[in-house]
Design brief:
mainly alpha, single chain, 2 domains, binds zinc ion
């Protein structure tokens, strides 16, 4: 189609033969097969098609090609351009997320969460996979991203010990995306004199990992003291950052090896 869309996407039949090529829509007298077109495509599209002269043998080989390239072969650039057209960027302050000095997997995780692309049961139930939309951990609500990361009983227990009491109301009232951006861009210090952004990111990542592991790994048990695990990792990240700023501490150890 002129807009680059495949005819398969607008076919009016439920079952589509994906091996069909253009010559299957042309009859022996080198004209469009109107019967075939009208039973498979919307009326407007049929009119657009029959306005184009039907192709003949002499026009070259008939094969399925890729849109967006001159050669009709796949190129990485054509895939990238197609992706860019469909990508809808999310407004927000991403600067602090990407300048954060910590494990890249946690940065990427937060980026996916802010795009509301974490695969939750609520999301899967919308796709019609027959899976319950409820949270398997508490059963007290839809397993949405904000539920898993903040509102589930397991997550609340952790946050109550990390969030300062004067920020509690705001923390538990924002919607998912605002909540993520608000905390990512928060300059205040959290426990142990570690930046709140680091504690927030590390906590979200752990909560998500623990929730997944407790569902998919039979042997897994949540840590007895989750705050210790979170603060241990957050401290390591914080110390690495300090080392980067001030250089390695001048310390010598003597090890007797023989
Ligand atoms: Zn829950």
């Amino acid at each position: 189609m002129s807009d680059g869309c495949s005819l398969m996407n607008i076919c009016t039949q439920q079952t589509i033969d994906t091996t069909l090529t253009l010559k299957d829509t042309i009859i022996e007298t080198d004209e469009w097969d109107l019967n075939f077109l009208t039973t498979n495509l919307p009326y407007i599209t049929v009119n657009q098609l029959v306005a184009i002269p039907a192709l003949k043998e002499t026009d070259g080989s008939d094969s399925i090609g890729r849109t967006g390239t001159n050669t009709r072969h796949f190129t990485i650039q054509s895939a990238y351009n197609l992706q860019r057209e469909r990508y809808c960027s999310i407004e927000g302050n991403w600067k602090r997320l990407w300048s954060w000095k910590g494990p890249h997997r946690i940065q990427t995780f937060m980026w996916i969460a802010a795009h509301e692309r974490l695969l939750t049961n609520y999301c899967r139930s919308i796709w019609g996979s027959g899976i319950s939309h409820l949270c398997p951990t508490c059963g007290n609500g839809d397993e949405t991203i904000i539920h898993a990361l903040r509102d589930c009983v397991q997550s609340i227990r952790v946050w109550l010990r990390l969030v300062s009491s004067n920020h509690m109301t705001n923390f538990f009232s924002l919607n998912c995306r605002d909540w993520i951006f608000d905390n990512l861009n928060n300059n205040k210090m959290g426990s142990h004199k570690i930046e709140w952004q680091t504690i927030f990111m590390v906590t979200c990542w752990h909560l998500w990992m623990w929730m997944n592991k407790s569902i998919f790994e039979e042997e897994f048990h949540r840590p007895f003291n989750p705050i210790d695990v979170i603060l241990k990792m957050a401290t390591e990240i914080h110390n690495c950052k300090q080392t980067q700023i001030s250089g390695w501490p001048q310390r010598t150890d003597t090890i007797f090896i023989g």
